[in-house]
Amino acid sequence: MYRHHSNFPTHNLSNHLLNQSSFNHSANEHLPFVNPSHVTNFVPLGQGNNNFPTSQNNEQAPSSPPPQYIPQQQTSSGLTAVDPRTIAGCLYRFTYIWMRGGNSFWFYPVYVGRRSVSGYRWTGRNWIYAGYSLRRIISFHCH
């Protein structure tokens, strides 16, 4: 389901919940990457049981920075996970993601699995390849 804010679609995730019992994640699946104070819940590629691709599959990072604005967050209480079908509509598009724990950032998804999404995360200077559990995403906005 899309709600329009300005000219950009925003996803209403309340209608696209996954049952939390369908996830079987281990405790060590959410390992910090590089600097735990800046990036949380990152799962290094090839580790864990999240079905992340083990390589970048020759996908290219975006050649430009993301938009300079931060979209307004649309939240719904009681979310357990993002439905992969909803975030799949953001493949190869600049997407702003809000994570559990308060982190938010621009992301460029290139892969969506049943329980994970991977792609390029904007650091403020460049794009880095990263993967995240869909359970850790509160909401997102495609540009």
TrEMBL record:
Residues 45-78 are annotated as: Disordered. Residues 47-59 have a biased composition (Polar residues). This is Transporter.
